[in-house]
Amino acid sequence: MTMMTMMPTLTQAALPATWFDGRSSRRHAVQIWPDGDRLVLAPTDEQPATPPRRYALSALRLGPDWPGCERPLDLPDGGRLWLPRDSAARLVPALPAEPPGLGERLSGRWRHVLACLCCLIALLVWLDRQGVGLAAQALLKVLPRSVDIKLGELVGKEVSEMFQASTQPMARQQRLKARFTEAAARVAPDLIVRLDFMRSRHEAMNFNAFALPHGGVVVLDGMAERLSDDELMAVLGHELGHVVHRHGMQGILRNLGLLSVAGVVLGDFSSVAASQVATVQTLRYSRDAERQADAYARRFIAELGLPPQTLAAVWLKFRANPLVASMEAAQPAWLSTHPSTDERLNTDKGR
Amino acid sequence: MEEASNSATTPEPAQQARQARLEFTGRGAEYFRLWVVNVLLTLLSLGLYSAWAKVRKARWFVRHTRLMGDAFDYHGRPGPILRGRLLVLPLLLAYGYAFLWSTTAGLLAFGLLYAAGPLLFAQAQRFKLGNTSWRGLRFGFDAPRAQVYQVCLPLILLWTATTLVLELHLGEELMWGSMALTALGLPWAHGRLKQLQHSHARYGAQRFSYAPGHSAFYGVYFAAAGMLVLAMLAGGCSIWLIKQWGSQDEVQARIMVILAGIWMLILAWLFAWPVFAAKVQQIVWRRSDLGDVAFDCDLRPARFWWLAFRQILLVLLTAGLYWPFAAVALARYRIESISLHSPVPLDRLVFQAAPAATDGALGEGSADGFGLDLGW
Question: Looking at the structure, do residues A163 and A86 belong to the same domain, yes or no?
């Protein structure tokens, strides 16, 4: 009859709960009720009945209130109570709840969730357009150039395997190489540059030139054939701009940043899915970088004493090239890597 | 709630169920709320919040998983998880990029991975299971260190063999050799890993046991490879169809090559992953026992594949917003496919607690970082 004497008073209704003592997996149906500054726990299924347990209310913290879940309550003796939500609600003033973290508070109301969703979408758009690029530029400042050089050497090896030997006359190759290295030594004395002529197996791909992060610049035959020496120097100035501004390394850092963002958003089930999203986004390698390189080319040809129209002549030949024309017609904006030729021409015609 | 009051009035009925199934009660809309806030705060805090996000997510999934009317619970704290992640980030970066720096740095990073990887894996298991409970008792994982190395090292070596051969420029023959070795050895190593995980796990003081069967894992990998072939066929067909549609411009062809590569990867993952995950889960649980209790898993690979296919399609169509709903749908199907079968009424089974040990969360963070899917 101990049970009777321990029963709650009329004002304090006993509430049903489930109790585990932490020593065995046995489930106990219990009744709980607050009694002064204590919480009383009385097993209802024990035979013989065990005396009720009492816990100081101030030492207890009620777990979060989630729809469809009982609320957990850890006991100082290693036991665990699961309270039905309505039982818990009736204990709340006396029983302190675990203080909700920022995340819980925000997730708790749909209004806040919607506000967070808007912030998230805005943040993702900004990160994609600007944020990741800014972070990459900041990181670039602390990354030594030796990494660019190492990377350029690695890529350079693969590139030379991809292409065939150039069919340009040796004399012209030598002349342009000498002219470029001499000019580059004047404009960017701390860089070691190197010019190579190569030929792509695919004729349509031959109207191109590119720079590697360590200062290696490659001009493909299609471009060398169609451009004069002076015009080639303008193109080389553009490629040198990429090297000087370390656009290659910047692009890699940007890729990594986008990968991390995609990883945070989609990563909880598949990192493969996340990396795919990042790939699509990085195809659109910064057009700002191209504009920066164009600006460098303008300074470069001025330094060489070439007229500013040289660059406009290059853009005109770009536009005349069926490859570039069809590329601009076919590519959706998010896939194009360069500013449009019309934009470039407008910038350089007026000079 | 209902059961609590029922069992109060009818203590220990003689007729009790001898089998029970795991239940998952979480709903996509609820996880959506949690996910949006987690992603936003993680991005805003430059990743620091990810430890809190991890705890919130694990708690949410675990507390919505129920067995015989009682929920599981997760007790991991964000502090140790954050410490673990911060410690392991340099290791991860070293593993990914050291060979870009120099061959020596690369070899050092891989050496570090071989030395620390198995320990990190064991630690991750211990943290994860030790912080999961049901009916007031914690799960646990304790495997002898020597055994952890014996099982994990071959797996890591097989996993990294081809990368190592490529980075050290050991020649094409050796590369093909190491790829063949990986293909032949990986199912075996994977089977041993699952055996390690499931035979050294415990609930309270009761150890799980696991009947090894490496040949079954060869079946899984074979099925996954078959799905890859199907994916390539489907991808090839779809690309051919699109090619017929448009003009045969060289530039368009070049863009197509890039897009086709991405499309192929998505298809490969979409075709192979669900079948692979379903079959592994099935093998592993059917071979596991907890004392006299046997587990079964009636996950149907074909059904899971169709579910995953639809869910991922919806994710793509909603630009990712459907993600939390998909995650919940997939988790529900995987969790609810597991059932327990006992020779005695399940409610009469009582497990005792083991002396608890608390650990740092280095392993937990690191296992996440390495993308090891430790499953349930």
Answer: no
Q: CB-CB: which of B40, B71, B136 is closest to A69?
A: B71
Looking at the fold, whether A57 and A196 belong to one and the same domain comes out as no
CB B64 to CB A330 under 8 A? no
pLDDT tens digits for A87-107? 888 888 788 888 888 999 999
Q: What is the pLDDT of residues B145-172, one digit of tens each?
A: 999 999 999 998 988 888 888 878 777 8
Count of structural domains, chain A:
2
**What are the tens digits of pLDDT across the range A312-330?**
888 888 877 766 665 555 5
| Closest partner CB to A335 (pick from B7, B255, B352) | B255
Contact yes or no for A24 and B350 at CB 8 A: yes
Residues A82 and A183 in one domain: no
Which range of residues forms the domain containing residue A21? 13-95
Amino acid at B315: V
Q: What b/e string do you get for B174-209 counting C-beta neighbours within 10 Å, with b at 16 or more?
A: bbeebeeebeebbbbbbbbbbbbbbbbbbbbebbbe
What SS3 class is residue B319? Answer: coil
Rounded Cα distance, A84 and A66, in Å: 11
Are residues A80 and A198 both part of a single domain? no
Is the complex ipTM more than 0.85? no
Q: Are A45 and B7 an interchain contact pair (Cβ–Cβ within 8 Å)?
A: yes
Residue A117 lies in a domain: no
- Do residues A251 and A156 both lie within one domain? yes
Q: Which residues of A touch B250 (CB under 8 A)?
A: 202, 204-205, 323, 326
